[in-house]
C-alpha cells in the first residue's frame, strides 16, 4: 500500500515550481514506488504545456518504455489515427499517463503489460496532479477506467459516461473532462473492432465539437 516504507509515493520527488519542464526533468529520479526498477526509463509525457487538449492513458507499454515517449506502440498508433480523424491536430494534444513507469511480468523474452495496482496508482498520482495544475486545456480526455479513476475518483463509470463532457470544480476553477475507453480495448475487441473504433471516434468527435 501507499505509505509503506518501500512505496513512499512520488510527492517528495515532485518539484513545487518550474512548470512541466521541471516535472519532466525530475521524473527520472522518482522512487515513489517499485516500478522504476525493472523499467528501462520513465515515460513522462509528450506535447506542449499550452496544448488545447490533454489526454491521459493508463501507463506506458513495452514500446513506450523502450522509446521514452507515450503512445508510440500499437494502442498509441490507433489513438493518433483516431485523434486526427476526429479533426483534432496532434500538435494540439498533450499526452500523458496515470502512471509513469511500465508495469509488466516477464514471460520468456516478452514483457506482458500488468494493470497497475491501487497502491501504485496512489503512489504515482502526485505527478499527474502536478501536470494538471500547470496545464490549462479546454478539455481533458480520460482514456479508460484507470485514467478516469486517477483523475475523477472511484465513482466514475466509463461505460455509462463515455463521450460526455463532465464539468468538475477544482482548485483551479471549473475544468471539463471527457471519459472514454482506452484505445487498447479496441485492439482487443476481435470481430467487434470496427464498431468499437467507430464508438471511440464518436467520443473524440464530441471532444472536437466541445473545444
Ligand atoms: N497505453 C497507455 O495507456 N499509455 C501509453 O503511453 C501507451 C499505451
Ligand atoms: Fe515514481 Fe510513478 Fe515511477 Fe512509481 S510509477 S517510480 S511513483 S514515477
What attributes does this structure have?
single chain; about 210 residues; alpha/beta; 8 helices; binds uracil; binds iron/sulfur cluster
Q: Would you kindly provide a written description of the structure presented here, covering whatever features stand out?
A:
The protein is built from eight helices and eight strands. β7 (about 165-170) and β8 (about 175-180) form a beta hairpin. The chain has a six-stranded mixed beta sheet. About 35% of the residues lie in helices and about 20% in strands. The chain has about 210 residues and is of the alpha/beta class. Uracil (URA) binds near residues 57, 71, 73 and 97.
Give the topology string: H per helix, E per strand.
HEEHHEEEHEHHEEHH
Give the biggest sheet: 6 strands, mixed
Share of helical residues: 25-40%
Distance between the termini: 38 Å
The set of bound ligands, ions and cofactors reads: uracil, iron/sulfur cluster
- Molecular shape: globular
Overall structural class, as computed from helix and strand content, comes to: alpha/beta
Note poorly predicted spans.
none
